[in-house]
Design brief:
CATH superfamily of the largest domain: 2-enoyl-CoA Hydratase, Chain A, domain 1
Largest sheet: 6 strands, mixed
Distance between the termini: 27 Å
Radius of gyration: 19 Å
Order of helices and strands: EEHEEHEEHEEHHEHEHHHH
Shape: globular
Mean pLDDT: 96
Number of helices: 10
Structural class: alpha/beta
Strand order of the largest sheet: 1-2-3-5-7-10
Number of strands: 10
CATH class of the largest domain: Alpha Beta
Oligomer: single chain
C-alpha cells in the first residue's frame, strides 16, 4: 500500500513503520492517523510480521504532537468526536494488537506523540528524546489516552505533575520514571530495538498474543485480569506451539515455533 505520511517495510520478521512528516516534526493529523491504522492492521495480519517497530523520520522527533491547525476551531461536540475517533482508530487499536509493538522514540514525543508511544507495548528512547504532555498550556487536556496511560506507567503523582505543568522530561528521567525501558545513543536506537525484536521472535507468537491480552485485561474496567489469564493459559495448551515448546524442552533442544 502506498502512503503519503508514513512508510512501512518488512524484513526478517520485523515491520518498521515510520511517521514521515519531518517538516511538521511528524505531527499527527487525521490522514496520518488513518494511514497508521492501516499499516498496523496490515502488519498485524501479515504472516511475515512477528514484531512491529514504530518510529519517526529524521533526528528531531518521534512525533511532536497533534496537528493543532486541524482542530483549533472545533466545537465541544467536534472535540469529543475527535478524541473518540482517534482512540478507537489508532491508540486503543495499537495497544490491543496481538503483534508486539515497540516504540523507538527518537527525539520529541509530545502530546499525541507521547500518547502514541504509550499505546505501544513498550518504549525505547534515544538519549536526545524529550517527552511530555503539554496540552494544558493550550487550554485542553490529553485526549488520546494520556490521562489514563501515563499514570499507569509512572504513577498518579508524577502523571499529575507532568500534565499540570505541561513540562518535558528527558530520556534519563523517563527511564527513571519507568516511562521507557531503555535509553540508547540515537544512531543505535533502531538496531537496539531490532535486537529486542529478535529475542521476542525466538518465542511463541501465539503465547505472546495471549500474554498481551492478559496483561491488558488488568487495566480494563469491569474485567478480572486473573480470569483472563486463566483462560489464556488454558488456550495455550491447545496450540501446536505448546506441544513443540514442551517437547523441545524435554528433548533438550531449541524449539521451532510455527505460531499455530
Amino acid at each position: 500500500m502506498n502512503y503519503e505520511n508514513i512508510t512501512s517495510s518488512t524484513f526478517n520478521g520485523i515491520t518498521t513503520i515510520k511517521i514521515d512528516r519531518p517538516k511538521k516534526l511528524n505531527a499527527l493529523n487525521k490522514a496520518t492517523i488513518e494511514e497508521l491504522h492501516n499499516a498496523f492492521n496490515d502488519a498485524n495480519n501479515s504472516k511475515d510480521t512477528k514484531v512491529i517497530i514504530l518510529t519517526g523520520s529524521g533526528e528531531k522527533a518521534f512525533v511532536a504532537g497533534a496537528d493543532i491547525s486541524e482542530f483549533a476551531d472545533f466545537s465541544v461536540e467536534e472535540g469529543g468526536k475527535l478524541a473518540a475517533q482517534g482512540q478507537n482508530l489508532l491508540f486503543n487499536f495499537v495497544e490491543n494488537l496481538s503483534t508486539p509493538v515497540i516504540a523507538a522514540v527518537n527525539g520529541f514525543a509530545l502530546g499525541g506523540g507521547l500518547e502514541l508511544a504509550m499505546a505501544c507495548h513498550f518504549r525505547v528512547a534515544s538519549n536526545n528524546a524529550k517527552m511530555g504532555l503539554p496540552e494544558t498550556s493550550l487550554g485542553v487536556i490529553p485526549g488520546y489516552g494520556g490521562t489514563q496511560r501515563l499514570p499507569q506507567l509512572v504513577g498518579k503523582g508524577r502523571a499529575m505533575e507532568m500534565i499540570m505543568t505541561a513540562g518535558m522530561i528527558d530520556a534519563a528521567q523517563a527511564l527513571h520514571y519507568g516511562l521507557v525501558n531503555h535509553v540508547t545513543e540515537q544512531d543505535e536506537l533502531i538496531e537496539f530495538c531490532e535486537k529486542i525484536a529478535n529475542k521476542i521472535m525466538r518465542n511463541s507468537s501465539v503465547a505472546i498474543a495471549e500474554a498481551i491480552r492478559a496483561i491488558n485485561a488488568n487495566y480494563k474496567d469491569g474485567i478480572n485480569g486473573y480470569d483472563v489469564e486463566i483462560e489464556a493459559f488454558g488456550n495455550c495448551f491447545g496450540t501446536e506451539d505448546f506441544t513443540e515448546g514442551t517437547t523441545a524442552f524435554l528433548e533438550k533442544r531449541k524449539a521451532e515455533f510455527t505460531g499455530k
